[in-house]
Design brief:
The complex is a heterodimer of chains A (224) and B (219). Chain A has 224 residues and is α/β, with parallel strands linked by helices. Helices cover 24% and strands 29% of the residues of chain A. In chain A, strands 1, 2, 3, 4, 5, 9, 10, 11 and 12 form a 9-stranded mixed sheet that branches. The two termini of chain A are 25 Å apart. Chain B has a single domain, classed as Glutaconate Coenzyme A-transferase, CATH 3.40.1080. In chain B, the strands form 2 sheets. In chain B, strands 1, 2, 3, 4, 5, 6, 9, 11, 12, 13 and 14 form an 11-stranded mixed sheet that branches. In chain B, a hairpin with a 2-residue loop joins strand 12 and strand 13. In chain B, helix 2 packs parallel to helix 3. Classes of the chains: A alpha/beta (224), B alpha/beta (219).
Chain lengths: 224, 219
C-alpha cells in the first residue's frame, strides 16, 4: 500500500547505512532534489548510488557526494562541465566508480524489476567495459552477460501521482523513473501534484502504483 | 562510381561538414545525433526530409533548441540543452529508449570520434589518460545498435596525426561498427572491402593516400 507524505524527512525514514540507492534523473530533468536533500539530513552513509550522472554543481546528488555518504557510484556519464564534486572525490581515490553503458544501466535495473536473473547484451563487446565478463555467441553475434542491479531504495520524481501510487511523468523528465520504480525494495516518489484516485486517466498511467511505496507531495512541502 | 575529388577549394568547414552528413541521411529516417558537433547536423536537414530525431533520454520527434519562453526544464536533449517537441512527438522511459537503439530500430546515428580504425572500430568515449574521468553515456549502445553509424571528425589531430588508423590506440567504443566516416578532407565508406574514398575536399586522392597509414581505394 502506498502512503502519502507531506514531510520529506518522514518520506525518507528508515534508509539504512550501506544501502543501494537508485536516483532518477538525467541531468536535472527528473532529479528528485527534495528527496536527495532529505537523504542528506537523514544521514545514511556508506551508500552505493546508481544514477545516470554523478551530480551537477553543488546541490542534489553532488551535495550527497560532498557530504561523504557515498562509497560507490554506478553510472554511465560522471564527467560533465559541472561535475567538480565527483571529479575531486574520484581523483583523490575517495569514491569507487562502476561505469556502465547507459542502455545497459537501464536494462540491468529493468531486469531486476522484472525478475530476470541475467541477460546477454551486445553493448560493449570487445571494449574495456566488457573485460572479465562472460560472453557468448548467439546466431553469430557476440554478447556480454550482464546482471541485474537491484536497489534497496529508489528516489524518483514524477509529475503527478494519486493516492494509490500511480504515476505520470512529464516530457523527458520521465527518463529513469519508471525503470527505477520497479527495481527497488522501497520506492519513494516526489510529485508536483497529488491526484485523488480516479483523477489520472488509467490509460495514461506510466508507473502503476504497485511499484510505489511512498509519495511525497511537493506542493504541501512548499506550502509548509 | 569513383572518388569525387573537389580540388579547387579548401577543406570542409564545420558547418559544411554537417551539411554533407545531412545530405546523406535518407528521407524519412529515424536518426540519433550525438552530443557536440553531430547535433548541428539537424540544422542542415531540409524541411521536407521526413527525418525523425531520437534523443536517448526518451523522445522521438525532437525539435530545434528552445529559446526564451520555450525553455522547459523537463524537455532537454542528450547534451542536457533545452529543446522543443515537434507535432507527433513521443516520450518513453530509458529502458525503452535504449531498446529502440539496441534492437536495431534506428536507421542512422551520427557520432564524434577520437579515432576510427580501417575496419570501422570506433574509439570515442575515453582518452585513457591518467586522471581522465571515464564517461561513456549512450555511445556504446548507439555504436552497436543503429543500422548505420556515421562518424564526423577532423581527419588529422592538430599535430597532423591521422585519426583514421590501422588499429585504435584509444579504448574502444565498438567493434567494426562505423559504416561512414565524414571528415574535413574526405568522406570514407567502411566495410568488408576496406576503406573506400567517396569524396575529397581540397586534397586529391593520391595525396590523401600518402598522408594516411591505412590502405584506401577509390569508391
Amino acid at each position: 500500500m502506498t502512503t502519502l507524505h507531506t514531510d520529506p524527512d518522514e518520506a525518507l525514514a528508515g534508509v539504512q547505512d550501506g544501502s543501494t540507492v537508485l536516483i532518477g534523473g538525467f541531468g536535472m530533468a527528473g532529479m528528485p532534489v527534495t528527496l536527495i536533500d532529505a537523504l542528506i539530513r537523514q544521514g545514511a552513509k556508506d551508500l552505493t548510488v546508481v544514477s545516470n550522472n554523478a551530480g551537477n554543481g553543488d546541490t542534489g546528488l553532488a551535495a550527497l557526494l560532498a557530504a561523504g555518504r557515498v562509497r560507490k557510484m554506478i553510472c554511465s556519464f560522471p564527467r560533465q562541465s559541472d561535475s567538480w564534486v565527483f571529479d575531486g572525490l574520484y581523483r583523490a581515490g575517495e569514491i569507487e566508480l562502476e561505469l556502465v553503458p547507459q542502455g545497459t544501466l537501464a536494462e540491468r535495473m529493468r531486469a531486476a524489476g522484472a525478475g530476470i536473473g541475467a541477460f546477454y547484451c551486445p553493448t560493449g563487446v570487445g571494449t574495456p567495459l566488457a573485460e572479465g565478463k562472460e560472453t557468448r555467441t548467439i546466431d553469430g553475434r557476440e554478447y556480454v552477460l550482464e546482471y541485474p542491479i537491484k536497489g534497496d531504495v529508489a528516489l524518483i520524481s514524477a509529475h503527478a501521482g494519486d493516492r494509490l501510487g500511480n504515476l505520470v511523468y512529464r516530457k523527458t523528465a520521465r527518463n529513469f523513473g519508471p525503470v527505477m520504480a520497479t527495481a527497488a525494495t522501497l520506492t519513494i516518489a516526489q510529485v508536483r501534484h497529488v491526484a485523488e484516485a480516479g483523477e489520472l486517466d488509467p490509460e495514461a498511467v506510466v508507473t502503476p502504483g504497485i511499484y510505489v511505496d511512498r509519495i511525497l507531495d511537493l506542493k504541501a512541502e512548499e506550502a509548509a | 562510381m569513383s572518388t569525387v575529388e573537389h580540388l579547387d577549394r579548401k577543406p570542409l568547414g564545420r558547418a559544411e561538414l554537417a551539411a554533407v552528413v545531412a545530405r546523406d541521411i535518407p528521407r524519412g529516417a529515424f536518426v540519433n545525433l550525438g552530443i557536440g558537433q553531430p547535433t548541428t547536423v539537424a540544422d542542415h536537414l531540409p524541411a521536407d526530409s521526413g527525418v525523425t530525431l531520437h534523443t536517448e533520454n526518451g523522445m522521438l520527434g525532437m525539435g530545434p533548441a528552445a529559446e526564451g519562453d520555450e525553455i522547459d526544464p523537463d524537455l532537454i536533449n542528450a547534451g542536457k540543452q533545452p529543446v522543443t517537441e515537434l507535432p507527433g512527438a513521443a516520450y518513453f522511459h530509458h529502458a525503452d529508449s535504449f531498446a529502440m537503439m539496441r534492437g536495431g530500430h534506428l536507421d542512422v546515428c551520427v557520432l564524434g570520434a577520437y579515432q576510427v580504425s580501417q575496419r570501422g572500430d570506433l574509439a570515442n568515449w575515453h582518452t585513457g589518460a591518467p586522471g581522465a574521468i571515464p564517461a561513456v553515456g549512450g555511445a556504446m549502445d548507439l555504436a552497436i545498435g543503429a543500422k548505420q553509424v556515421f562518424v564526423m571528425m577532423t581527419l588529422f589531430t592538430k599535430d597532423g596525426t591521422p585519426k583514421l588508423v590501422p588499429e585504435c590506440t584509444y579504448p574502444l567504443t565498438g567493434l567494426a561498427c562505423v559504416s561512414r566516416l565524414y571528415t574535413d578532407l574526405a568522406v570514407f565508406h567502411l566495410g568488408p572491402d576496406g576503406v573506400k574514398v567517396a569524396e575529397t575536399y581540397g586534397i586529391g586522392f593520391d595525396e590523401l593516400a600518402a598522408r594516411l597509414e591505412v590502405p584506401i581505394t577509390r569508391a
